[in-house]
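Budget justification aside, the reviewers requested a transparent look at the raw inputs and outputs of the sequence design task funded under Objective 1. We therefore reproduce one unedited record. The lines immediately below are the structure tokens for a 118-residue chain.
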């Protein structure tokens, strides 16, 4: 009988995060805050900041924590720690920075964007 094939290993560096049922992103409070924040900022704040607003800047929006919710749980529900981002800016930019170990750069840029909207 043939053996099961070996499990492929990902070349991606794992992020320090916990996605379990107790994570705040699954809480009712987070869902309400996230929805309210996206209604208040219905356009990707990074796209607006860098001047590249397009149709994609208004669809598939998510709310990003400038300082990550795992390392900074006390800031998880703080509006001053949140940004509305399109999928490209969230997954294609900020997550890539964080996965590459450039979390400080991601925080700095997030805070610059946040200051632009104050």
């Amino acid at each position: 009988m043939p053996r099961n094939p070996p499990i492929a290993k990902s070349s991606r560096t794992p992020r320090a995060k916990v996605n379990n049922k107790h994570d705040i992103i699954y809480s009712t409070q987070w869902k309400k805050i996230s929805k309210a924040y996206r209604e208040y900022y219905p356009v990707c704040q990074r796209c607006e900041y860098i001047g590249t607003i397009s149709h994609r800047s208004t669809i598939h929006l998510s709310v990003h924590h400038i300082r990550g919710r795992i390392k900074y749980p006390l800031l998880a529900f703080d509006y001053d720690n949140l940004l509305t981002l399109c999928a490209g800016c969230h997954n294609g930019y900020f997550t890539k920075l964080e996965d590459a170990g450039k979390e400080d750069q991601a925080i700095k840029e997030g805070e610059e964007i946040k200051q632009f909207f104050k």
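The longest strand covers residues 62-65. Strands lie at 62-65, 82-85. Computational costs for records of this kind are itemized in the attached budget.
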